[in-house]
Design goal:
Shape: elongated
Order of helices and strands: EHEEHEEHEEEEEHEEEEEEHH
Radius of gyration: 20 Å
Structural class: alpha+beta
Number of strands: 16
CATH topology of the largest domain: Tumour Suppressor Smad4
Strand content: 35-45%
CATH superfamily of the largest domain: Probable inorganic polyphosphate/atp-NAD kinase, domain 2
Helix content: 10-25%
CATH class of the largest domain: Mainly Beta
Largest sheet: 11 strands, antiparallel
CATH architecture of the largest domain: Sandwich
Number of domains: 2
C-alpha cells in the first residue's frame, strides 16, 4: 500500500500531516507521491480539489481520503482526533470505494487552435468579467435558448452544494449520473427570456455553450480561472473518468448537507447535554 499526503499551508494542517505520516510509517505503510494507491488530503475541500487535479491523470489507480482541519468539509470524513483509526483502516484496506461522476469540459477555438480539455470535480463556470454574457445554449446539439446574464454554472452532483447552490441550484445526491445547469443573474423581461430555472441533464446528453458577439470569455474549472480568446464553443458532459473515495468511515451525504447548512442535529444534541 502506497500513500501520499497533500496538505494546505495552515499550521494545524501541517501538524496533522506530520502526525499522520508518523503513524503511517510506524505501521510500515509506504509514503510515495509518485505512484500512490491512496491520496490523503489534509485541510478542507479546497485542498482535496488540489489533490484531485494533481492526480487527475491516474484516477483509475488512486482513491482519495479527506482529513478535515477547518470549519466545513464536504469531502472530508476524518478529523485529527481519529487519525489512529484511519491508519488502522488503511492497514486493513479491502479496496472498497465510493465512485462519483466528474465533469468533462472541452473548449474549441475559432482559429484552428488545438482544443483544450479539463476535468472538474465540482463545476465549470462561464462568464464575462466586464459585460453581460450572451451565449446560445444547446442540449444534445439541439438549440435550447439564448442566455443573457452574468454567467452559467454547470455542476456535478458533488459540486451541487457549492457555487451551484449559492446561485439557486438544486442539491443532487452524488450517486446520480447527472449534470446541472444553473443561471447566474439572467436577464428576464418582455424582450429577453430564459428558462430561469436549473436544468438537470441526463447521462446520455451533453451541453454546448456558444458565445455570441464575443470570442473572449472567463472560464472557471473548479479552482482554475482561465481567460480564453477566440472561443468557438464549450462542450460539457459527464466524463468517462470517475473519482473514487476510499470507503472506510464514509459519512452519509445527507448528513453532510444537514450539518453544513442546518446544524439542527448538532444543536439538538447540545441541547440534551
Amino acid at each position: 500500500m502506497r500513500v501520499t499526503i497533500i496538505s494546505n499551508q495552515s499550521e494545524k494542517s501541517k501538524q496533522v500531516s506530520k502526525s499522520l505520516e508518523d503513524l503511517l510509517q510506524e505501521e510500515g505503510i509506504v509514503i510515495n507521491g509518485l505512484a500512490p494507491d491512496i491520496v490523503i488530503s489534509v485541510g478542507g475541500d479546497g485542498t482535496l480539489l488540489s489533490a484531485f487535479h494533481r492526480y487527475a491523470h491516474i484516477l483509475d489507480q488512486v482513491r482519495f481520503i479527506g482529513v478535515h482541519t477547518g470549519h466545513l468539509g464536504f469531502y472530508t470524513d476524518w478529523r485529527e482526533f481519529n487519525l489512529a483509526d484511519l491508519v488502522d483502516q488503511i492497514k486493513n484496506d479491502k479496496q472498497e470505494a465510493e465512485e462519483y461522476p466528474l465533469l468533462d469540459v472541452r473548449i474549441s477555438y475559432q482559429n484552428g487552435q488545438e482544443a483544450k480539455h479539463y476535468l472538474a470535480l465540482n463545476e465549470s463556470i462561464l462568464k464575462l468579467m466586464d459585460k453581460t454574457l450572451v451565449c446560445d445554449l444547446f442540449i444534445r446539439d439541439e438549440f435550447f435558448e439564448r442566455f443573457r446574464g452574468d454567467g452559467l454554472c454547470v455542476s456535478t452532483p458533488t459540486g451541487s452544494t457549492g457555487y451551484n447552490k449559492s446561485v439557486g441550484g438544486a442539491v443532487l445526491h452524488p450517486s446520480l449520473e447527472a449534470l446541472q445547469i444553473t443561471e447566474i443573474a439572467s436577464l428576464n423581461n418582455r424582450v429577453f427570456r430564459t428558462l430561469s430555472s436549473p436544468i438537470v441533464i441526463s447521462p446520455n446528453e451533453w451541453i454546448t455553450l456558444k458565445p455570441i458577439n464575443t470570442s473572449s470569455i472567463t472560464l472557471m474549472v473548479d479552482q482554475l480561472v482561465s481567460e480564453e480568446e477566440n472561443v468557438a464553443e464549450v462542450k460539457l458532459k459527464i466524463a468517462k473518468e470517475r473519482i473514487s473515495f476510499a470507503r472506510y468511515d464514509h459519512t452519509h451525504f445527507w448528513d453532510r448537507v444537514e450539518n453544513a447548512f442546518l446544524g439542527v442535529k448538532k444543536q439538538n444534541a447540545s441541547d440534551l447535554d
